[in-house]
Amino acid sequence: MSTLVLAAAPAAGRALRIGQATLRAALLLLFAFAIFGPLANLGLWAFAEKWYFPSKLPIQYGLTFWGRVFAPRGDALASLGTSVWIAVLTVIVSLAVAIPARLKLPWRGLILLAFLLPQAVPNLPVYVNIAQMFYRIGLTGTVAGVVLVHASHGLVLAVWIASAAFASIDVSLEEAARNLGASPWTCFRTVTMPLALPGLMASAIFVFLESLDEFTGTFFVGVPDVITLPLLMFNASQGGNYQIASITALLLLVPSIGFMLVVERFLKADVLAMVGR
Questions:
Q1: How far is 227 from 78, CA to CA, in rounded Å?
Q2: Along the 277 residues of the chain, how does pLDDT read in single tens digits?
Q3: Which one of 19, 206, 246, 248 is separated from 69 by 20 to 30 angstroms, measured CA to CA?
Q4: In terms of domains, do 80 and 193 share one?
Q5: Which H/E stretch holds residue 236?
């Protein structure tokens, strides 16, 4: 009897390991499907010429809709240029506010917390009230109004990441520069800024991507005069033109992936450890 039990024990152990490996593989496949499934569907729609129900795959592939997107009369390139220009201006405005985070201001913790408030409130009522206020002062339908709306969210990323980048700098390096006769401005320009530059670059990229993908604020403040790529994608999808919507989505996706790879290089663990300090 004991011999049978000893012989069955390795088999039970192998079965348990096989079951655990199968479960891990199933969870991994489910996770991969949740991430790459929508992207694969996006790619199929981007190159589909004809795709009718109940066909599970496109009936015909081609580049006709890509030609429409990049045609001189198409709005995609103009909308992309508008989106990039607004994102660049949003980065400039956000960093102009974030760089003074190096200053040791009173109530610094409360000031940093105040920049989180836009994220704590639902976006829709905030944008509706901003649109009403901008309408009274003539900022609706203008690039300046859209930039200010985008900056209201971009400041959260810019200020917190910039403050972490500055907090990760060794104060003794600045003190050494001051002891050698450097003025406060020279010390900031030649010591502090070069050391904080990777963190500032990361914050600028995050703000840029946030602005590039922003839809709701642009919809309430910019329409109909300011049309960005997310608005064009929304209009195409609402009109049932899923090929155009998928192509514009890919145009937004590619720079996002590229910039996130750059962020991984700039945003180090020592900077992340200083967030909020």
A1: 9
A2: 555 444 555 666 677 778 788 888 889 889 888 888 888 888 888 899 888 888 888 888 888 888 888 887 767 888 888 999 999 999 999 998 888 766 666 666 676 677 677 677 777 888 888 888 998 999 899 999 999 999 988 888 888 888 888 888 888 888 888 888 888 888 888 888 888 888 888 888 889 988 998 998 899 998 888 989 999 888 888 888 888 889 888 888 887 787 777 766 665 544 444 454 5
A3: 206
A4: yes
A5: helix 229-238
| SS3 assignment, position 224 | coil
Phi-psi region of 138 (alpha: psi -120 to 50; beta: other; left: phi over 0): left
3-state secondary structure (DSSP) of residue 130: helix
CA–CA dist 243, 188 (Å, integer): 50
Question: Quick check: 256 and 212 in contact, CB under 8 A?
Answer: yes
CA distance 272 to 262: 16
Number of domains in the chain: 2
CATH number of the domain encompassing residue 185: 1.10.3720.10
CA distances from residue 68 to 28, 58, 145, 252 in whole angstroms, order as listed? 38, 19, 30, 17
Do 137 and 208 lie in one domain? The reply is yes
Hey, what long-range contacts does 186-189 have (CB within 8 A, 24 or more apart)?
188/102
Record the pTM: 0.80
Same domain, 200 and 97: yes
Residues 105 and 19 in one domain: no
Range of the domain at 54: 2-61
Whether residues 171 and 83 share a domain: the answer is yes
**197 in the same domain as 230:** yes
Instruction: Give which of 13, 70, 4 is closest to 248, Cα–Cα.
Output: 70
